[in-house]
Amino acid sequence: MVCQDExxxxxxxxxxxxxxxxxxxxxxxxxxxxxxLWEHEFRQFLLKTIQHYHLAAPLTALKREVEQSGAKxxxxxxxxxxxxxxxxxxxxxxxxxxx
Length: 99
Description:
Elements: H1 9-31, H2 35-52, H3 56-68, H4 75-78, H5 83-96
């Protein structure tokens, strides 16, 4: 999320802006009916981020905390990318293209 030489305050300074940017990209992807491709790429992004920053254990703790408060945890978003489903979605879109 930040450049190597940025200071400690940089992530805090841009976090809300980046969250908003992701929301806007997701909204446009949904409007443009690109949800199937977006879903796969988003899951890949989450998986790589979690692995790179070793966030599995902290996320598990946060999930327990969120669920204990009565809120819903977005399990679907954190599932691993499904390669076969992604390829099937692409194949389905290709079949619908009128040549």
